[in-house]
Protein 1
Amino acid sequence: MSGERGRRRLATFAETAMHIGRAAVSGAPLVEGAVSVDRAASGGRAASGGTVLSVGVAVLLAGAALFGSVGCSRCASNDPAARDPVPLAPRAEEPALGKEAPEEPQPSEGRRRCDGSAPGSLRLTPVAQGLSLPLYVLSEPGSAQRLYVLEKGGRVKRVVDKGAPETILTLSVKTAVEMGLLGMAFHPRFGDEERRVYLSYVDADGWSRLSVFRMGEERIDPDSEQVLLHVEQPAPNHNGGMVAFGPDGLLYLGLGDGGGRDDQYGNGQNLATPLGTILRFDPERPDVPPAGNRSGEGEDRRIFHYGLRNPWRFSFDAVTGDLFIGDVGQNHWEEIDALPRGAPGTNFGWPTFEGTHRCPGCDTNVPEPSPDMVPPIHEYPRGSAASVTGGYVYRGKKIPSLYGRYVYADFVHGWVRALTWDGQRACDHYDLTESLDPDGRLLSVASLGEDSERELYVVSFSGGEVFRIDPGQ
């Protein structure tokens, strides 16, 4: 980028208006400094400062159990050299060379509108207990009473009607820091004839695997494993691991940037590596890249989205097909990214940006800002430690006041929040924690989950429990 162009973009940025999410269920504000980006107004990245929340010792200890204390993408940096974030200009309107810029999303009939209304009273209902470091939960298609929980140590457990968890598969995994059994998805046509399930994990040698297995009547057959992806991980953090089917019937897998700090391996903007990306596969022809994946010379053709630090959970809205990503920040900012259904492959900007800010500390070999870097719809500042856990747009029937809101969490702070994205901006920010968890049981929210009836669940990592979000009494 030329100096003159950069100055023009900085000047434009300075005039950008931001939407600050401050409303809470109780009427008290959310964290000062949380930012939601109005794409229609700004067309790009923006910044805000403010105060942050503190974190209790119990929460930090819970986080340490999963992520360790060294090189942790989900723990804040104590680097004294880290500077205050430096804002840069919003994304330009012209497309990047050789690549069309994503079209701005248009309001969809299925999206909730920004109306200022608050969600009603909520509560947590325990549905699974006695688990060992659970990381994810989902249900069998067509059977919301049959839940499947992934334990970090490599076990898949089935829970039927709140019964005792039963192990149906044990994999050999490496569990250092953020490694382990990380993701699971059922084939979209799963049923009596179609028995394929997909698992994402870090194997005993420290390589990320995406594999397809076949499920019998009682167990997942370990001998049926077919490896679709095998990627070496240079560090035990930023491993991503979320796997899900999109509304296009294709299989998506998220991988972090390889770990360490400051994107030290240079993967965030490197299209020759699958690290720092969301990959996309055709489940029927996994060796044939789907149309729309990266296809330039030297590019990994499995890549669809890139410029991600550690996409810790992503999901597709069951009604609109919109994609939501929780991308874990480094020193200052956690972010929520969103794209409308059908959006082309997108560059989310890491390591050039952390949230909407130039990455502090990322001064060596960091690519210059590019017009195709798309900002998050929402960001919030870190306290002494923080780590976003991406969630789901609620599409169940039990809680009408929550319908159409995106529910997400923070692993370290232990809170659960909701926002609305109308396709242009994030709005109606509410903290659900006091309503859901007045007794403080959620010390570490590793994941949210969704069953086949579109009801939502919360996975308490340190507590070894899974809860369903229900209407309050």
Protein 2
Amino acid sequence: MSDDNNQLNTAVTPTPNPVGGNVSDSTTSVPAQAATSTTNTVLPDVKIPDSSPQTNMQQDVTTPTTSTMTNPFATPQKPVTPTDVTTVVTSPHAPQKYGGRKVLATIFGVLLIVGGVAAGVLLVQRQQNISERAQTNVQYDAQCSEVIVYDQDWNRLSLADLNGITSGSVVRFAVVGASSSGNFDKARFTINGTKTPEVTDKKPGTEEFYYQYILPEGVRSYTVKAEIHHTIWGWI
């Protein structure tokens, strides 16, 4: 073919000679086939295997099933089954080991307390009944006579006579007891609400205990109460 035989003509511009001469024109002929082979050189295609690290990394990132990361050092957890859930819910309501004994002990203690209180009430009522019966059956064989008033000379006076006696005068309040057994050893008086000291003095020749009293100024009425002490029965 004529095209295959074409040649690439390259014109070279004359270059001045450094010595002063001229370089002669020259024409270099390069075969067209060599230029074409150099220009049309094509590199072979390089195919990357599918198992490359880049392809695997992209697949791990984009695939949802492999995106979850797990800790290899984590303790495996036991799966929860319906039986386990039921056990957890009902376990707080299970009876304790010694609950029945505690309940029995508590009931027994309450019964003891109630029984003790009831017994105490019965004993108190019984003692009260015994005391009431004893007081009812007791009959004092002693008695106290009415209060007797004397002047300083042992003249007997009435309470009404005291109104005519001037204040500062001395009177004697006396009392005597009677009993078939035992003796009287002392007496005491309450005059207008004021208790006097206990006395053991007796009117001469008698068993009358007396208290000597000075009539206060401005008092015109008197209320006198007398008690006599028996050696067995006490104060009467």
Protein 3
Amino acid sequence: MRFASSKELLHATPTLTASDPVIPVSPDVEVLFKEARRRARRRRLLTGGSIVATLSAATVCLFVVTSIQNADPDLPAAAALPRAALQAAQPDIYVVHTPTGTGQPGLVNVMDSGTGQLIRTIGSAYDPYSINSFQLSPDHTTMYYGQLNEAAQTVDLVIAPVDGGPATVMPDAGTPRLSPDGKYLEYANSAGGFFHVKDLSTGEVSTIPGPGGFENLAGSLSWLPDSQHLLLAGSPILLMGYHCAPQLDGAPPMGVCPVPTPPAASPTASILNLDTQVWTPAPLLQRDDGRYGTLLGPGTEPGTVLTMPNGPASPAPLPDHSFGPAPLLTVDTATGAIITTATIPDHSRILNTDTSGTNILILNYQQPDATLDRWEPLTGNQAPLGPQVDEATW
């Protein structure tokens, strides 16, 4: 037996039979009834008009999206979602590297995002010699950071449980990048020319050659939001060793840094499909000066990345190693189109983003004493979290 739902009962139309009495309607009630029907008909017309307009806009958007032929058919296209709906909540913790003194390794501390209080210290022998080596797993259980192996002259990867358990070390595995879902770890070693992707659930490692000409490019690498694609944007402006780390204080760079050479190839951007292990060209946004922007991490929507354009059109770093107001773009990797544009706050420097790309840790140099701030590029909100640090992630 099926029972009518409340919605069916509400909109049901009664059927009169010959035996049903007909009650006459008073003139006043009939006037009110006609007025109610007139208002209901007007609401339907207005609603119908808005639906037609919405459907028309959606049809145009759908036509634009479906007209784009991605180089990789498995690569999802960016979706036109409301900006406010994409803002993620503030992560509950963040991890910082705080120097203890000049020339000292410093401490790796786990902090409470809400109170700014220290939760625990998970590392004290940390040397920040590896670019982009400070990573926290999306579930906030594991910390990854690079540590100099002076004897081997390589960067080892330290894997430390956030709860304070014993850490493990992966030799010669610098520049770690965790996929947004936390299932894969991409890293490079001193050999260069190859990308290594480790499945953290099985321990299996895939060694994948870079796209053609990668050895002659200064590459910037980022995961895409689906955790199945890696984007490499290269600039032929400078030939640079993969572990060459320029120092902000003007000291000689650390690592192997070949002498800059003239461009050997045109600027390039390629996307790696983890399933097929095939690189395909990507029409990533390219500046007029021939450079690609620095990739900061996955974007807020499918198929997008966060990028900070570099080159003469962007302000040069200020004496405090911060930037003036500079653009932060969300770029669709399938088309090169700019999805969103935000302005990085004046006198600040980006340290890291969360997995949603909507909460960014920045160093704020606008005050006499610099602070670590949370910045939301979608809303423009900015709030201090704690004192100045060398590195931070969440």
